[in-house]
Specification:
GO terms for molecular function: ATP binding. By secondary structure, the chain is of the alpha/beta class. The protein contains 16 helices and 16 strands. It has helices at 11-24, 36-45, 62-72, 87-95, 108-138, 146-158, 175-184, 206-211, 228-231, 247-259, 285-290, 296-302, 319-334, 343-351, 357-371, 378-384; strands at 3-7, 29-33, 50-54, 78-82, 100-103, 165-168, 193-197, 212-213, 225-226, 236-240, 261-263, 270-272, 276-281, 305-308, 340-341, 375-376. The chain has a 5-stranded parallel beta sheet with strand order 2-1-3-4-5, sandwiched between helices. A 5-stranded parallel beta sheet has the order 7-10-13-6-14.
């Protein structure tokens, strides 16, 4: 049942608001506070789905209540109640995070519509938070080794900045995972994360893929098309395997980073973009620079923050945690009871040479869950975990 808090110093207006809201829906629980201090105290100790707050009140005005309430419970929508002379202030509160404002005396239909819309928004915010938690869990970084702890610390420090990040490491180590974590923990998390696998796109098409094209700019360009940079506007673009990008495309990416502008293939018109760039590669870019395959100026633009993801062989202490995580995930996907791994089985997995890194470990765990006994044993490892 939705709980609504009315913070208003005039008792008559409190009564009117409560009567209107309660008669609209009997399931609404409406509570009252006669000033901002009392309202904040009630908010600290209770969960509310909506707050109606007057602007001009003794002890603490509504603008201050709004700021403090948003810090306490940012997901709770707040509707400001304004007198005729408070309209400019009421409009300003919208910039500060208020859901809406209602003038005194309250119009019945306007009030009820605002209450319904605000409560619906609260439900959506909660659902989005749960969805984000679920998404974040899919991209969770598992491990307590020194190397993984260091990566997590770097992400915490840089996620909320717009600093460009270059992620390096062998194939299958989880570079994409790091990129997703950076985005999920950033202020851009509500905007898209657009992924581009530079190694999977033919060199003659990479520029069109990244920057878009106009109709007729090349054979097959039958209509205008936005590129990945435009699609990622406001969010993050993840350039995976950037070491495989052609020198021509590198030059255009460099311009985009320098000027925050892109131009579609076949067009001279610039399009402004606000994009955070995260790149990844399994190549030694310093060696690629020396051999003339990668632009040094682009490297320095990308490598503001460097994150090196270790091979699984260099973090063997994380294998028990990873096996348990994958066993949970695979049993959930297959709708089966989770299988346990014996200590001897885990020890053998820790001694295995993981040339395919995390990706290979996940495949092996899935194979063992399908083919192994109720408890995966050392014998199962010897039978099914070999290459």
């Amino acid at each position: 049942m939705p709980k609504i808090l009315i913070i208003e110093d005039e008792a008559a207006i409190r009564r009117v608001l409560k009567k209107i809201i309660s008669e609209e829906n009997e399931t609404y629980i409406v509570e009252e506070a006669e000033d901002g201090l009392e309202g904040l105290e009630m908010l600290k100790n209770n969960d509310f789905d909506l707050i109606l707050c007057d602007i001009k009140m003794p002890k603490m005005d509504g603008v201050e209540v709004l700021g403090k309430a948003k810090m306490l419970k940012p997901e709770v929508p707040i509707v400001m109640i304004s007198g005729h002379g408070d309209l400019d202030t009421a409009v300003n509160t919208m910039r500060l995070g208020a859901f809406d404002y209602i003038s005194k005396p309250p119009d019945l239909n306007r009030l009820l519509n605002t209450v319904r819309n605000a409560l619906e928004q609260k439900v959506l915010v909660v659902e989005n938070k749960l969805l984000k938690k679920k998404i974040s869990k899919n991209y969770e970084m598992i491990g307590e080794s020194e190397a993984i702890t260091h990566i997590k610390e770097i992400i915490e420090k840089v996620a909320n900045t717009d600093a460009r990040v270059l992620i390096t490491g062998p194939n299958g180590t989880g570079k994409e995972l790091v990129a997703h974590w950076l985005h999920e923990k950033s202020s851009r998390s509500q905007a898209p994360l657009i992924e581009v696998n530079c190694a999977a796109i033919p060199s003659e098409l990479i520029e069109s893929e990244l920057f878009g094209h106009v109709k007729g700019s090349f054979t097959g360009a039958v209509k205008d098309r936005a590129g990945k940079f435009e699609s990622a506007n406001g969010g993050t673009i993840f350039l995976d395997e950037i070491g495989d990008m052609s020198l021509s495309a590198q030059a255009k990416v460099l311009r985009a980073l320098q000027e925050n502008k892109v131009a579609r293939v076949g067009s001279e018109k610039d399009i402004s973009v606000n994009v955070r760039v995260v790149a990844a590669t399994n190549k030694d870019l310093q060696k690629e620079i020396a051999e003339g395959n990668f632009r040094e100026d682009l490297y320095h633009r990308l490598a503001v923050i460097l994150i090196k993801v270790p091979a699984l062989n260099d973090r063997r202490e994380d294998i028990p945690l990873l096996v348990d995580f994958f066993a949970d995930k695979i049993s959930e996907e297959q709708g089966t009871v989770k299988k346990q791994f014996s200590k001897e089985a885990i020890q053998l997995l820790k001694e295995y040479n993981w040339t395919g890194n995390i990706r290979e470990l996940r495949n092996v765990v899935e194979r063992l869950i399908i083919l192994g006994e109720k408890e995966v044993s050392a014998k199962d490892i010897q039978l099914f975990a070999q290459k």
